Amino acid sequence: METTSKTIRKHSLEKLYASLAENRKMYAPVAEADNRIGYKYNPDFSEVIFDHIQSTLSVKNVVFPRVENVIFYTNNKNDSTVTDVDLNKIPEVVLWGAHPCDTAAYDVLRSIFCWDTKDEFFAKRLEKLVVIGLACHKSDAHCFCTSVGLSPDSTKGSDILLVPLTNGDYKAEILTEKGNRILTDFSGLFEPYQDEETKLTHVEQQFDHKQVTQHLKEAFENPFWVENSLRCIGCGACAYVCPTCACFDIQDEAKGKNGKRYRSWDSCGFGLFTLHTSGHNPREVQSQRWRQRILHKFSYMPERNASLGCVGCGRCSRACPVDMNIAEQLQALQSI
Amino acid sequence: MSEFEPKVVAFVCNWCTYAGADLTGTSRIRYASNVKIIRFPCTGRIDFMLLLKSFANGADGIIVSGCHPNDCHYTSGNFHAKRRWIMFKELMDFMGIDMNRITFSWVSAAEGARWAEVVNTTVARIRELGPYVSYKQMVNTAVEEEVTND
Amino acid sequence: MINLVSRADELLESKAVQVVIGYEAGSTGKARPAFITDPSKTGSLIFDDRCVQNLAVYLTKKEVRYFGKAAIVATLPIMRSIMMLISEQQVFAENIVVLGVSAEGKYIDIAGIEVMQQYIATCDLGNPAKDQETLAMLNKMSTQQKFDFWQKELSKCIKCYACRQACPMCYCTRCAVECNQPQWIPVQSNLHGNTDWHILRAMHLAGRCISCGECGRACPVNIPCHLLTMHMADQVHNYFNVYAGTTDKMSSVMSTFEPNDKESFIQ
């Protein structure tokens, strides 16, 4: 689809939000305690913020919830009955004001979940999702989108991308059919775009991801991994705040005769992740798990899914209690 | 609405309280039938997680009971239990989990009447407190309830 | 920190230790743990206000143990952690050299366990002042208020287990939360699973928590989970008159007893 650019005035933005909220669930960023940013369902427009750098958690939970029920079952005397989850109950959601790194992450997730078999839970949630992205006019030292082939205003994954203008209004780039439908439905709120000046942040490029991918092919046995992960304590913070980490664990939970099977987030950083029943663990120590994390995102995924497994949001580096700064490490990897 | 009948789970040790409860029965003493007794080898075996599990599975009140100090069949199981309950109670108080819903007691094998009294007072107290709604709500609330179709 | 650096240098040079665990300048203005094996690199060791992480967590880490004997930069909480780890026989005193740092950030010579014990005895072992304030505030609340407070906090938990991993006392190779026969803790990161997890963690650290606050600092979503274990530390002192990590022969509070332990709630 051809991209159309429109301008939306600040006061119209509120109307657009209110109109969309009429029959859809809104998921938008709000300020939380301790100067943190979090996303919340159906916040009041006055609560929604437009000038945040990064939320603590990513928005992958919209399409890949922390916990997702897969089936429900009842064990009877001689047989079991299984009930599927009614996917039609999945609500229509508008993700409002997500930054380009987060929206681009949906493309990465799609390349994982819809790689060969289409994951119906993920696909349905994505189908019901409208993404209204927000280009960044602020960034910090942890942001590195430009190093992974994105930018503060990349349109990947958005249906409509709002780009802040210097005059306080927004340029709206209509990118997909879903976006176009919003434009048609609420055409009165949009005005023609007249080359007004956009306000964007500059994110310094820290490394060349193609070079990193190339180097990683030879780096499996490199002492780099041990040296640079001695301080890693093996928690799952990086994976759980990551917008593209897609590993999950499947569990059954029963109460009497009734039970459910669900999947919940997991992390390759945990020792238990690869532990075999025999007691053998192919990734025995933390350096191997750290290597897996980097290789998966920067070597295996480009090779198999034709997409990089990182969008440069910098959340893992912000969340890490022991300063495992991923951009710093990738920069170092470039020259090993 | 039908009258609230408290569900009370009793974790008791095999050697004292369980035998005491037996004596209550053989002595034909009537007591509240709301209690479901679970027999353990010793109070020292009663893991605090079991108490949480019973709340999670619908109990409104809990009784934990064993041999009087110095009477433990295994010499010191109840002393260990006592320390554990002191800390557990402090933690529960700190986290706002209502300790009025848990009765800790020592009931010996000879105290059939006392067992009836412990159960009756506990049940009466829970009846006054009503069902443990806040805990049940917690158990039933998934964080992302709506999106997970829970 | 000339003394710290020169002492580290000396230890590595004489091969008295194979690795020095300390702090170095990290990215974006943070300080981070450093593992120095080469005496020529001890110059990167720093110590300032940013150096708050409890380094004792690395003493039980496999890859760090591979090095052999370790010298560790230790403030009071780290010293107490070391005492606990020795008491619980997770590390051996002869494999550790302590490079002490006082509350004022000055190097102190800790020549052996006895010296460390004497030093710890001179310190205030209660919870840090700002946490004491929060604890007092929470303790004043009603049962329902406390419940609401913790439910709100714990609903944020994503079960990344950073609190567990950051804690030097959580060294079990198989955590109770990972046992599924029976499944003690619901795996889901919902309110129920989260609450059970934090109760279990606090109970398992009762009498072992040395009030470093590392769990709360490590939490990526800012749950003040250190208050739970700190409250337990307070109560252990209150009831049993014990502060964790004062000697290398601590007996475990929760697996010992005194016949006259005081309580008032058992009928």
Overview of this protein structure:
The complex is a heterotrimer of chains A (336), B (150) and C (267). Chain A is α+β, with helices and mostly antiparallel strands. Chain A is built from ten helices and twelve strands. In chain A, α5 packs across α8 and α5 packs across α10. The longest helix of chain A is centred in the last third of the chain and has 19 residues. Chain A is globular. Chain A starts with a strand and ends with a helix. With 150 residues, chain B is an alpha/beta fold. Chain B has one domain: 3-Layer(aba) Sandwich (Rossmann fold), CATH 3.40.50. Chain B is built from five helices and four strands. A four-stranded parallel β-sheet of chain B has the order 2-1-3-4, sandwiched between helices. In chain B, α1 links the parallel β1 and β2. The relative contact order of chain B is 0.22. Chain C folds into two domains: 120 residues; 127 residues, no CATH class. In chain C, 37% of the residues lie in helices and 10% in strands. A five-stranded mixed β-sheet of chain C has the order 2-1-3-4-5. In chain C, a hairpin with a 5-residue loop joins β1 and β2. Chains in contact: A-B, A-C, B-C. Chains B and C meet through α2, α3, β4 and α5 of B and α6, α8 and α10 of C.
